[in-house]
Design brief:
- The complex is a heterodimer of chains A (148) and B (135).
- With 148 residues, chain A is of the alpha+beta class.
- Chain A has one helix spanning 10-31, and strands at 43-48, 51-57, 66-71, 74-81, 91-95, 100-107, 118-122, 125-131.
- Chain A contains 1 helix and 8 strands.
- In chain A, a hairpin with a 2-residue loop joins strand 1 and strand 2.
- With 135 residues, chain B is an all-beta fold.
- Helices cover 0% and strands 50% of the residues of chain B.
- In chain B, strand 3 and strand 4 (42-48) form a beta hairpin.
- The chains are: A alpha+beta (148), B mainly beta (135).
Chain lengths: 148, 135
């Protein structure tokens, strides 16, 4: 891992590595010859010190078909988007909407507090709040002075 | 398989008080992915439009053209900064040419789970009997 806690502005450098890591992960999804042309679901990531907010776009998917899991410093969004049941004799003119199984993993530059992760689904957008694990935060160390 | 939705940007310029040209808000318009089905009775359109403010949805049928528009409303918790965004959209917009007559009065639209589902019943072909007058 490429943590750079020793730099002057730790927050900024953490997120720079995050970008590189996620580019690599996205690319590896595509290179593995996955059927979908684009990664699904599309993701927007916002950050604050010690916290991340992720929006995943999952239109037409029920909560029970979405699986969210958090482990160490990664978040995995997995699930399936069902194809519509069509009655007999229905012609399909256009089919652009993604359907099928999907799985995407995001790696963060810090360990996540799985107990405090919250998520809500509204109008097809899953909003996930991911706080940093307390144990992962740098702790100030008090220097003891020598007694004479 | 998904097709890359088209994304277009429009920029409007406004004049500031000092007379300088300022780029005003850039509107990011995305053409939503759609599935279109048809059977004897009706045509059905399913648009992927997650995050739309329901009141902003505009659906119109005019001269055989169906147009759909919806404005995105996705608040972010305060204090957060953008890190990376794969879907930055302000507005969804798409138009279709309908090649069969539609009964617009009976059309139904439902926005659920971030999808807009439009059901457009087909019009009955008008049958008319013409009486021939004999002179």
């Amino acid at each position: 891992m490429m943590y750079k806690f020793l730099e002057n502005n730790p927050t900024q450098s953490i997120w720079r590595d995050f970008d590189r890591l996620n580019d690599a992960i996205t690319r590896s999804f595509l290179e593995n010859g996955s059927a979908s042309v684009r990664s699904f679901p599309p993701l927007n990531v916002y950050t604050r010190e010690d916290e991340a907010f992720v929006q995943a776009f999952l239109p037409g998917i029920d909560i029970e078909d979405i699986d969210l899991s958090v482990k160490d410093n990664s978040l995995t969004i997995r699930g399936k988007k069902r194809e519509e049941d069509l009655s007999e004799g229905t012609e399909v003119h256009v089919r652009e909407v993604f359907s099928g199984d999907f799985s995407r993993t995001l790696e963060f530059p810090f360990r996540l507090d799985s107990e405090r992760v919250t998520a809500d689904l509204k109008n097809g957008v899953l909003g996930i709040l991911l706080p940093r694990a307390e144990a992962d935060k740098p702790k100030k160390i008090r220097i003891q002075t020598e007694r004479s | 398989m998904t097709r890359n939705p088209e994304e277009t940007k429009t920029t409007e310029e406004t004049q500031s008080a000092s007379g300088q040209n300022l780029p005003a808000k850039r509107e990011r318009i995305l053409s939503p992915s759609v599935n279109v089905y048809e059977n004897e009775k009706e045509a059905r359109f399913v648009f992927d439009m997650p995050g739309v403010q329901e009141q902003s949805l505009e659906i119109g049928i005019d001269k055989g053209i169906l147009s759909v528009e919806g404005r995105v409303d996705l608040p972010i918790p305060t204090g957060f900064q953008k890190e990376f965004r794969e879907q930055e959209t302000d507005l969804y917009r798409r138009r279709f040419h309908l090649n069969k007559p539609i009964d617009a009065e009976k059309a139904q639209a439902v926005y659920t789970k971030g999808q807009l589902v439009l059901t457009l019943p087909k019009s009955e072909p008008q049958k008319k009997k013409i009486n021939i007058q004999m002179t």
